[in-house]
């Protein structure tokens, strides 16, 4: 057998099913942030992504959390519930969105961001300052009921 043909036969099962087989809509759903502190509903608006805060598994349901760490004093009383933390993304194809920013309500900082759908239940969210090499990646997991 031709060595190239043998290589192809060995590689095809490894890459299938591939990310390319997932529809772009596969990113839509509710995700638990990497630190386990926030439920984020991710939806698409055209090619842009929206990421709305739905709450936290650690929240006291009798107490509404506000954006207390926001650098803008006038925004510190706004509720976190429903806050969109994503902005300005463009779809690159292959389950990857870039060129956007993510707001971290825990620190009050906004970072450049790349979001990549790794598989149907795993999302890679990389926040960075300047260049993507200098930053932090979180792995978000889809809520089981989605």
What descriptors fit this protein?
single chain, disordered N terminus, 146 residues, Lipocalin, 9-stranded antiparallel beta sheet, mainly beta
Question: How would you describe this structure to a colleague?
Answer:
The chain contains one helix and nine strands. The protein is mainly beta and 146 residues long. The protein has one domain: Lipocalin (Beta Barrel). Strands 1, 2, 3, 4, 5, 6, 7, 8 and 9 form a nine-stranded antiparallel beta sheet that branches. A hairpin with a 2-residue loop joins strand 7 and strand 8 (122-128). The longest helix has 13 residues, at 3-15. The N and C termini lie far apart (45 Å).
Give a brief description.
The chain has 146 residues and is mainly beta. It has 1 helix and 9 strands, in the order H-E-E-E-E-E-E-E-E-E. It has a single domain (27-142), classed as Beta Barrel (Lipocalin), CATH 2.40.128.
Secondary-structure map:
Layout: H1 3-15, E1 29-32, E2 39-45, E3 48-55, E4 86-87, E5 90-93, E6 96-104, E7 109-119, E8 122-128, E9 135-142
Antiparallel strand pairs: 1-2, 1-9, 2-3, 4-6, 5-6, 6-7, 7-8, 8-9
